[in-house]
Specification:
CATH topology of chain A: Chemotaxis protein chec
Strand content of chain B: 15-25%
CATH class of chain A: Alpha Beta
CATH superfamily of chain B: Response regulator
Helix content of chain A: 25-40%
CATH architecture of chain A: 3-Layer(aba) Sandwich
CATH architecture of chain B: 3-Layer(aba) Sandwich
Number of strands of chain B: 5
Number of helices of chain B: 5
Oligomer: heterodimer
Distance between the termini of chain A: 15 Å
Order of helices and strands of chain A: HEEEHHEEEE
CATH topology of chain B: Rossmann fold
Radius of gyration of chain B: 13 Å
Radius of gyration of chain A: 15 Å
Strand order of the largest sheet of chain B: 2-1-3-4-5
Number of domains of chain A: 1
Number of strands of chain A: 7
Number of helices of chain A: 3
Shape of chain A: globular
Structural class of chain A: alpha+beta
Largest sheet of chain B: 5 strands, parallel
Distance between the termini of chain B: 8 Å
CATH superfamily of chain A: CheC-like
Helix content of chain B: 40-55%
Number of domains of chain B: 1
């Protein structure tokens, strides 16, 4: 089964508009790896195996948390920012299941923070990588797929 | 009316609470739990009229909570609010005794229609 980019964009649009009350656009901007970044990830197991990732700079992560908690970005604690980022990628992954074979299970989300790191799931490769931006703040949504043996 | 919100994400518990207010349930008393095990305790102590529950949680998942309730002959109205959007999950939820499944992301209108249809 092949996921299409348009499937992922549609799901991100729903999450951004309904949950965050934000818009986004396609961009050529990338999330610079030399700066501190945050990546949330949910893995999927079952008849389709892979992972969904969301990567952004802390500033956008703070805005996402603020939108979810109904506070100012500066008021969101680091735990709240991680919680919010994890929940956003969880929603994206959960909705992707509509396009996948039955029997796929989601992991709980995890969040990685730092500079110059790579998030990898052994045995997978990048199926879809979207470069998007909200009010000029870039973020990247990735879908990793386990390679066929 | 007392509603128990069960979700391991504090952010999502806040969004569910906010959406309930927007859907016309501003007068409801809201109780929160961070997983199924905490929810079992909260149901016993708070006696809510409705449980809104996430699916994937540490300690005890939402479906494990629902099965534990129904096997104890507890028929409290129970709905999932989850990112699990597949038909398979909806069927599993219904078979276990859930009244409804709301998929994240959601709108106040969905809450109003779904919870309202239960006569709540």
């Amino acid at each position: 089964m092949r996921l299409a980019e348009s499937d992922v964009v549609q799901i991100v649009e729903a999450v951004w508009s309904s949950t965050l009350d934000m818009q986004f656009e396609r961009t050529t901007l990338t999330v610079p790896s030399a700066e501190p970044t945050m990546t949330s990830i949910v893995q999927m197991t079952g008849l389709w195996q892979g992972a969904v990732t969301l990567r952004c700079l802390p500033e956008l992560a703070g805005r996402i948390a603020a939108a979810m908690f109904g506070t100012a970005p500066s008021e969101a604690s680091p735990d709240e920012v991680r919680d919010a980022l994890g929940e956003v990628v969880n929603m994206i992954a959960g909705n992707l299941k509509i396009h996948l074979p039955a029997g796929c299970q989601l992991s709980l989300p995890a969040v990685v923070e730092g500079r110059e790191y790579r998030v990898g799931v052994p045995g997978t490769s990048v199926l879809i990588q979207l470069s998007l931006a909200t009010d000029g703040h870039p973020f990247m949504v990735g879908v990793l797929e386990r390679n066929a043996h | 009316m007392k509603i128990l919100i069960v979700d391991d994400s504090k952010a999502m518990r806040m969004i569910v609470a906010r959406t309930l207010r927007q859907a016309g349930y501003g007068d409801a008393t809201l109780v929160e739990a961070g997983n199924g095990r905490e929810a079992l305790t909260a149901i016993e102590t708070s006696q809510p009229n409705l449980v809104l529950c996430d699916w994937n949680m540490p300690e005890m998942s939402g479906i494990e909570l629902l099965r534990a309730l129904r096997s104890a002959n507890n028929s409290i109205p129970f709905g999932f609010v989850t990112s699990e959007a597949s038909q398979e999950m909806k069927d599993t939820a219904a078979a276990a005794g859930a009244q409804f499944l709301i998929t994240k992301p959601f709108t106040p209108k969905v809450f109003e229609e779904t919870i309202g249809s239960m006569g709540a």
